[in-house]
Specification:
42% of the residues lie in helices and 23% in strands. It has a 4-stranded antiparallel beta sheet with strand order 2-3-5-6, sandwiched between helices. The chain has a two-stranded antiparallel ribbon with strand order 1-4. The chain is elongated. The longest helix is centred in the first third of the chain and has 22 residues. The protein is an alpha+beta fold.
Length: 196
């Protein structure tokens, strides 16, 4: 029944996308537009995949296995590439995350950080919220001493429409825990990620 329901919804979505394109005057009998509504539907489902799942459950799975550690230094994972969707224009936002973590008593496997970035970015989300959600999630789930993230991204809503300013990069940052008070640690992080 669930597969049947998904099929009905998908057919309805494809139909609506077809009508949208036709409303804008596109000739869908043109060979270049063959199956374009289906591909658009598939694209939206892919780039917004986190919208269709229970994100908290997936985050629980990412942080389920933790390993004890006595390491007290800074761990930097960078650059972590991501693609998100701007909720204002439904155009892509793409860039890199530079992540610094000072662990508490445990760590997760390093691959969990890029997986978390992908999970949090796979929905319509503002860059500011994405940056803060990333830091808060790691800090809360890992119970670490501190987290800092710098996110640099290109917003295609600024490059292909409106102001049409290719090359503009938007930078956001968020800190939690020890990064709030230890300026030398924050400076070490910025120094190690270099001129990004």
């Amino acid at each position: 029944f669930v597969c049947y329901l998904e099929s009905v919804i998908m057919n309805e979505t494809v139909y609506l996308l077809q009508k949208l394109l036709e409303t804008y005057g596109f000739d869908l009998s043109d060979p270049d537009f063959k199956r374009t509504p289906e591909r658009m539907d598939k694209m939206f489902r892919e780039v917004c995949s986190s919208h269709f799942i229970n994100v908290d459950e997936q985050i629980d799975k990412l942080f389920e296995v933790q390993f004890p550690t006595t390491y007290e230094g800074l761990v930097i994972v960078e650059p972590i590439p991501f693609v998100a969707i701007c909720p204002h224009h439904f155009l892509s936002v793409f860039g890199n995350v530079y992540l610094g973590v000072v662990s508490g008593d445990s760590v997760v496997g390093l691959s969990k950080y890029p997986r978390l970035v992908k999970l949090l970015a796979s929905k319509p989300v503002k860059q500011e919220d994405f940056t803060q959600n990333l830091v808060n999630t790691i800090y809360d789930r890992l119970e670490c001493k501190g987290v800092m993230a710098v996110v640099k991204a290109t917003h295609t809503c600024m490059t292909i429409r409106g102001v049409k300013a290719p090359g503009v990069i938007t930078t956001t940052s968020s800190v939690k825990g020890i990064f709030d008070t230890d300026l030398s640690l924050k400076a070490e992080f910025m120094s190690l990620i270099g001129d990004v």
